[in-house]
Amino acid sequence: xxxxxxxxxxxxxxxxxxxxxxxxxxxxxxxxxxxxxxxxxxxxxxxxxxxxxxxxxxxxxxxxxxxxxxxxxxxxxxxxxxxxxxxxxxxxxxxxxxxxxxxxxxxxxxxxxxxxxxxxxxxxxxxxxxxxxxxxxxxxxxxxxxxxxxxxxxxxxxxxxxxxxxxxxxxxxxxxxxxxxxxxxxxxxxxxxxxxxxxxxxxxxxxxxxxxxxxxxxxxxxxxxxxxxxxxxxxxxxxxxxxxxxxxxxxxxxxxxxxxxxxxxxxxxxxxxxxxxxxxx
Length: 281
Hints:
This protein is 30% helix and 19% strand. The chain has helices spanning 24-33, 72-75, 81-84, 113-122, 139-148, 166-173, 188-193, 223-237, 255-270, and strands at 43-45, 51-56, 86-89, 95-97, 105-108, 129-131, 135-138, 153-157, 160-164, 178-181, 199-203, 245-247, 274-276.
């Protein structure tokens, strides 16, 4: 990575001679952190098509070939500021996309999606949202259409298939509404290839706030299984080719508060530029 990154406001850097633990890498990290206002931001704009991806060192790092993390001598030192803080991963090309239409919305963990969608539509101020109504097809119809153009998302239900197509999403968008999707993260790439740019809302879960989810009328008997699925979702999020919005555990106190925060965040994300990492499509 080029070393011509400059902080927005010049400030004196620590003298590496003053402490043996301060390496060039930790000084460079100090410069990078001045560009980043919040840890949960996955990219920071450097110019029109290049970014730096910052991820939490405590989470699973991206395994894409060619990515490097710390220098060997830095990673070997457990007291090194860089190894204890954030891993810096070389930037990769991204392209900016803007859309005037209301973007569809995906929710994670997926187990929460159906209940969240129902509560958004049942609460006041739901005029900006609508559910995505899938097509119901027989087995024969499903295989016939799937061979012509793969569905964005589908699930088998008894002897039929519920399928989400581009037309289903556009039918909601043409009415000036956000299409609320009950679908897996695996459909994100298919959406992006069709130039449909989803808003992804990730509700962060911890052992403390998982109990509050019982008020969403979810089946939470298997709490350990739910948390296992949640951790798998977090890993999957790190591999998607676009940004997602995270809701911190302390951002909401109850179910009504959660829905209000989600609606506000959707409207906020709609105003932002969409950045897509084309190499992952």
